[in-house]
């Protein structure tokens, strides 16, 4: 299918994208630089190149094809012929992205685990609110003021201080965690609190996304027994206007996990409590910190991976890095086709994730040694 275009004169046709179509910033993908274009009706996303994006970003209904072609020629030194226009507009039309053209059919909703949504006793999802985006907006109106710098800067400083104390007194925290696991009542209480922290983690993603113009598609429960967790799906995360907005959205959950621990840390440090309570608080501080920091590990699909991808300006970062390193190690000529920015990003991610993995293994070994010595 192609979109009819009146070329006599070409300025009579002023293409524009369908209302609601999302266009992302530039991302690295392998050796290429791409933009993502998403149809919110069907939920489908498409990759387009830099040159296609140059034209698509200017299709606002105010420019005719002659004007678009002139801007393209000024940027790239080459005018587009009728065949080029037919190909581009036909592609957009077939995908239902052009205003005035047929819309692409809605696709069946799928859950983020892949495949059509299913609900069984052992596995499934359950939306908890009818309008997740409206719920996130109400939460943002209620607590969004806490995201302002006068609140966030002291909070982040307190969290940093708490984690510094945790590292300095790590032995006490490990002993407290061991003691916590020997007390079923206190362990159940700590588990309930950590689950509640996880729920707040997910809501924090949604509230911060709403602050930056994101849309929350779903808030609910997901289970793969015996694990039951809350989830919050930000539908247009990759299309948020600014890279730092995306990083803030991805990191919001871990910050919330750590913020929940602050009052318990204060009681552990400053309140006169008995030994059993002190050990339980120390164990809770260790388990909660591990829970939060684990989400910042830069491996997919964790929040830390999303942050790393945004810092590198890439989509599909792990797969692209693996492929580039494979080519580079084999001295494959294809590795030279990668632009310098891509090479830097993929090598930095590979080195950084390797160091993180080594640090995790070292921490596990140190923990085992400590427990054996104890």
TrEMBL record:
Keyword Transmembrane helix: yes
Membrane protein topology class: Multi-pass membrane protein
Keyword Transcription set for record: no
TM stretches of this protein: 145-170, 176-196, 247-269, 281-299, 346-373
InterPro entries xref list: Peptidase_M50
Compartment annotation: Membrane
Database matches in CDD domains: S2P-M50
Cofactor(s) in the UniProt record: Zn(2+)
Pfam families: Peptidase_M50 (PF02163)
Domain Peptidase M50: 191-271
Principal location class: membrane
Keywords (A to Z) from UniProt: Membrane, Transmembrane, Transmembrane helix
Family: Belongs to the peptidase M50B family.
Name of the featured protein: Peptidase M50 domain-containing protein
Taxon lineage: Bacteria, Bacillati, Actinomycetota, Actinomycetes, Kitasatosporales
